[in-house]
Every structure is written in C-alpha cells, then in structure tokens.
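W.,

You were right to be curious about this one. When I first looked at the sequence I had no strong expectations either way, so I just let the prediction run and decided to look at it fresh. Below is the sequence, 293 residues in total, followed by the output.
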Amino acid sequence: MDWNDVRMFLGVARTGQILGASRRLGVNHATLSRRVTALEEALGTRLLVRRTNGCELTAEGEIFLHAAERMETEMLAAQSKIGRIDTAIAGTVRIGAPDGFGVAFLASRLGKLARLHPDLKIQLVPVPRSFSLSQREADIAISIERPQEGRLVSSKLTDYSLGLYASRGYLEEAGTPSAVEALKDHSLIGYVEDLLYSASLDYTGEVLRGWDSSFEISSAIGQTEAVRSGAGIGILHSYIARQYPELVPVLPKIRIRRTYWTLYHESARDLARVRTAAEFLQRLVQEERQIFL
C-alpha cells in the first residue's frame, strides 16, 4: 500500500469531490482518481461511490477513513520529529468533551476556529463518556480528571463550580429548603449512577448522604432541562445554570468544585492542527474564565 495513495484518499474523503481534492492537494484530478483506484485495488474493496456531483464513502470506506486518519497522525508526527518541520494547519481535529461543556460552551464558539483556518475541519463530540486517545476516538479530549499514567499531554483549562438549583415555579409551589436535610422533602434530580464514567461525577454524596433522586438523567444538559421544567432540585453546572433567569440557587453556600483538563496523545504533540486547536481552547477559556468561577 502506497502512503501517497492513502493521503489522496483522505483528501477526497474530506472534500467529497475528486476535483476539489485535486486542487487542495495540487495534483491533476485524473492522477488523483487513478491513485484512489490503485488503493482500492490494493485493499481489494471499493472505498468510494463516484457520482457526477461528488463522491460518497462506502461502508468499507468509512472504516478505512478512520484507519487512514490514524496513519496520517503517526506519519505527520514522524515527519515533524525527524525533519523538525511544522505541518500545515489542515485536516480533521476531533474534540471529545463532556456534554455540558461541549454543548453549553464549545458548540457556539468553535466556529471561530474553523473560520480562522479554512482547511481545518472541526468535529465536536459532546457526550457524557470518556474518550480513548490511544485508540484515536478523539484527537483532543476535555476531561474532568488529570490522567496519572499513559502517553498523554495534559493542560489545565479551568476550575468550575456546581451548585443546587431549582426553577422559580418549583420553589413557589414546593417551598425553598432552608437546610440540607430539608432536601429529603423535595423532588430531587440526579444522575444514573451506574452510567457514571468517572468517580468525579458522583456529586450527590458531597451534598446529602442518602440523596434519593425521583428523576435520573445521564446527561448534564438533560438534568438542566429537567430542573428548568420544574421537575425538582438538581446539582447543576453554575456556568450553565446562570444562563437561565428562571433558575434560582438553592442553599447557595453549598458549592462543588471541579476542573477541566485538555488531553491529547503524545504522538500528536508536533501536529500543527492538534496543537493549534489545543492552544485555541486554552485562549478561549482564559478569555471567558469569569463565567466558570
């Protein structure tokens, strides 16, 4: 298998067009088409469905795309280390993040990074789970824990806080608890305990021993929406809750503190696209740090 053929396949997969990829790669479109065909023959499978208006990945093409991107990461890292060269700010950067941070903060702000670097494709995966950087499930992961082992580069993003919140409507109907023990007399919103992917997400024990949720949701955004609807009192990210005037702090002296970290694999340290995205995240959070504290 020829690495140049793989590189050309990546160009077509990312643009969805042979002509567009040929312009970006600086090769004749007929040559590019032949090289992708040679790759398909080497693999013994069809990777692309070619149409007059563009190209579409086959099921096998989707599988090979992920493998090709891992190959690209290793190849560019090797070139950078051996040749001491920086690589172009182009290609795909996938950012995995907790759903609260990913949806409520990053989703409305990462467009600026894409505008700054037109050849860079940003993929944001905001879901309540951890990401394997060694298996390339993400290029950059936002974590609430700093890893103690593994070939990972970590940087602190920011501290943030959580607290108890309820909707004004709920408190008008059920009353406002004046002490922690009074929470037992209220409807409580919580998480699905066996779906927690990190012990750091186990907040309720820090507030009330024996917290008994009447409604459990395995998503920070989902919990926020449930509390907004008047379903009960929940432990919410303060930087999210403050966006909604209908949410009121309950027992405001009770605060839970956590930290966001950026992580990426050591092999991606010298990749311009990964480094650029990681530095952008740091600047972004620094500029708006006040909303997290």
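Here's what jumped out at me. The mean pLDDT is 87. And, maybe more interesting for your project: The first strand starts at residue 48 and ends at 51.

Coffee later to discuss?

I.
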